[in-house]
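Appendix B. One record, verbatim.
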Amino acid sequence: MGSTSAENNGAENSDAGVGRRDLIKRSAALGLIAVPSMGMLSACASGGGDETSEDTKGKTSKDNPFGVKKGSKLDVVIFKGGYGDEYAKVWEASFQKKWGVTSSHTGTQEITGKLQPRFNGGNPPDIVDNSGAQKIKIDVLYKNGQLLDLAAVLDAPSVDDPSKKVRDTLIPGTLDAGMQEGKIVALNYIYTVWGLWYSGKLFKEKGWEEPKTWDDFLAICKDAKSQGIGGLAHQGKYPYYINVAIMDLIAKTGGLEAMKAIDNLEPNAFVGSDAAKAAVEAVYEVVEKGYLLPGTNGLTHTESQTRWNQYKAAFITCGSWLENEQLKQTPADFDMRFMPMPLLPDSAMPYEAIRAGSGEPFIIPSKAKNLAGAQEFMRMMLSREWSTLFAKEANSLTILKDGVDPSVQLRPGTQSTVEASKAAGDNTFRFLYTEWYSEMDTAIQNASNELMAKRIQPAEWLKRAQAAVNEAAKDPAAKNNRRE
């Protein structure tokens, strides 16, 4: 799993997060990236021992804005999913060399299981990559007062250019996913796109062209079925993934207004929305016509993705961590390719439009023992040196503008996402309800699970999704989580 590998599975300069001017800037920023092809601690343990935040605080200076203390310790927990955790070990070695701070490193997929007791006990790690299927819900942590406001990090001088604030060195729009009630409390570090994936090799062998319309997509699924191949591989145990298709179709069909209606919890976000009706009916047609990979509803994300890597299905939905997550299962000549969601008739957005933004949220707990070290660590994450180290180790772009050295060679699938981002230009979008209202997100995922198993019809899916919206609208935070 990657950024939300069953999430991922992300306060971009404005609540909308997809303003036209910012997106043009984002596209330009991507164009500057010249790519030739571009031991878990126990619940009661702590990397800081008996240290307190005062014990780990040193003297501040121009070069040490947070007062990192030499000889202190940093407790780092990394979600070990699609991007692995080797990149963090490289960062930690660099951090120790510069600051004399040793790190306690943990790579795990059991974020909630391992860390919830520590948060509850007031003994959390110092910095956490809070991602994956078992991530701790950001909105819940925020409401419990357990997250540090990252304003000080974002307003600190950039490592590369001290005349600029850190926030001014980032791709516009990439901070939004970490916002709660106007505050940035999570740093979504990786520039991510979501959509459909296919094998260039399989498509060439079958004579298939990348489908730009939903009808063309269904035609390939039909042809695949006739040859004993699934049309769509669905990560059934994690319905987050099929929501990539449903929600992308809603946004592309109804435009940004349809997307904002959902994030803003409008009474007609789903029931009464022509775009939502068309989208869920389109995805259900895949189920009705038997185009799903057989048995796919019972598979985990990696099981489904591995079958796709074995040419047992033509398409799969995922975010851009997919290539990294499947490195060991992907044949050398697979030729992994990313593509935007195909269009339904009368779509408001063009085919090239994609869901894009930031993923893989890093957080600093408010009760972290080494707050100074954690904040400096995050500031260094947003340096060109560390961004390039990440790209080399994890084969992905970060949210730092022009943050990857041109010498870094990206793998085919990731390179295709760079090209798709450039082609999309200002036609990108990103839902935020997943971060703002986790219970609503879960309810919609549950409805999608029922839909894909043919236990409910599209009309019932719409009712359940709208009920989830109506329930979320009762949340006091809703008045502050608004997109204009």
